[in-house]
Amino acid sequence: MKNELAKLIEELKENLLYLEELGVEEIQAPFEIAESSKEPYKQKTKNQETSEIAKFSPTGSTDKLLRPFEKQKKADSTSPKTSERSKTSIFEETSLSSLTKKEIAPRIDNETPSQKAEITKETQASLFEVPKMTQKKEGLTISLFDEAPAQSLPVTNETLEDIRKDIGDCRRCPLHQHRTQIVHSVGNPRAKLMFVGEAPGADEDAQGQPFVGRAGQLLTKIIEAMQLKREEVFIGNINRCRPPGNRTPTPEEAAVCKEFLIREICVVRPKVIVLLGNTACQNLLDKKASITKIRGEFQDFYGIKVMPTFHPAYLLRDPSKKREVWEDMKKVMKYLNEDAS
Ligand code: URA
């Protein structure tokens, strides 16, 4: 009896500690005394124990009370083979609030190479919102981003090279008809800072590099003013093909192409993403708010800090806005430096 009580107290302490780690300050659920506990103490079955923990949980779900490694144990014991896991369960595992990159990684590392590939594919698949025209990719059905928003970026085993290969000689949207070449993202694959623009212009289309025209040169100056080199950061666009006449990409064109950018974000895992202009913001953050409203305030992209700011092309038209962009970049530098210390 004494031992059982000590064990219960120990479990209770652990669960309380875990709730504290989750940030739960108060438990609202009425604490009912179960009929069974009014009876003299009897050995409880596993099911009884579980249902009592559920009563104690603020959400009523026992999963919330499990520590990450316990969740894993449970997942392992309920899903017989990785290959048989449904897309949804992989999505839930990766998006589950408390699982961090480090906590997921060892699980992936324990898988066989073919299981790893499967997990990566499924993880990717659950991440991207892709319009109907590209929904089927080599027998893989891509589920929608908005099914259940993930809170942290899924871990992926693919490389930037894999993504390039997948893009191939892309003809997924009408923009391919007008391009000279695809303009891929460039930069440090381990960059702490990423810049995302809209789409290539004439210079980029001709040279096959993002941000090399006048706006690009201004971006390079901004990067250097931040005490960084262009090669140290990662630079990409929502769309990789130049829209005719430099028009804004349509939402459909953007949706097809941003899949690859998001996959790159999963590989690079920067600390901060700077979104340049309205198109980048509206497509990556799925926010309708204009850049004028949201610039300068950190936003969140699956656990990554995102700083929306004006596009350098806009600064060329209105140089007085450079001051605001510099204020935004100072916030980014402060965050990067804080994080590094
Ligand atoms: N503008 C963009 O948004 N991207 C580029 O690569 C160049 C100009």
Count the beta strands: 8
CATH class category of the largest domain: Alpha Beta
Question: Please, what is the average pLDDT?
Answer: 72
The number of helices is: 16
Question: Would you give an account of this structure?
Answer:
This protein is an alpha/beta fold and 341 residues long. The chain folds into three domains: 2-76, no CATH class; 96-129, no CATH class; 160-340, Uracil-DNA glycosylase-like domain (Uracil-DNA Glycosylase, subunit E). The chain is 49% helix and 9% strand. The chain has a six-stranded mixed beta sheet, with helices on both faces. Strand 1 (136-137) and strand 2 (140-141) form a beta hairpin. Helix 9 runs antiparallel to helix 12 (251-268). The longest helix has 21 residues, at 2-22. Residues 17-112 and 118-149 have low confidence and may be disordered. The structure holds uracil (URA). The site of uracil has 13 residues, from helix 11.
Mind sketching the topology for me?
Layout lengths: L1 H21 L12 H4 L7 H11 L5 H4 L2 H11 L8 H9 L5 H10 L2 H15 L8 E2 L2 E2 L18 H8 L18 E2 L5 E5 L4 H6 L6 H12 L8 E4 L13 H18 L3 E5 H8 L6 H4 L4 E3 L2 E6 L2 H6 L4 H19 L1
Parallel strand pairs: 4-5, 4-6, 6-8
Antiparallel strand pairs: 1-2, 3-5, 7-8
Helix pairs in contact: 6-8, 9-12
